[in-house]
Amino acid sequence: LQQQAEQACRQLVRTQEEHEHLLQAAVEQAEELEQSLRSAEAVLAERVAQLRDAQAQLSKNKLLIEELRGENRRFAMALQAAELKQKSMEEKNQLLEEQASALKQLIGKITPASLSG
Question: Which stretches are transmembrane (predicted)?
């Protein structure tokens, strides 16, 4: 009976040691998982910060694009006004050239008449 008790006690000790090893392995695995989780959280936080920066830059770029569009519209209107003014000046120039030609013809007609008179 005593031998059976000692054998049972040794078996119990071995079982207890196995359980302690399993528990130790489980604790180590949990610590590794916790460390992995912390690393993943750090990477995620960095990605979130990068996305926020990218979003802020995108907002700035959108505002800049809108400003450039407005400026482009103003330049287009100024160009159109300049083209209209140029066309008007060309028409006035053409009219002046026609008047100058008419005056030359008139002077040409008047001059021989006054020389012969």
Answer: none
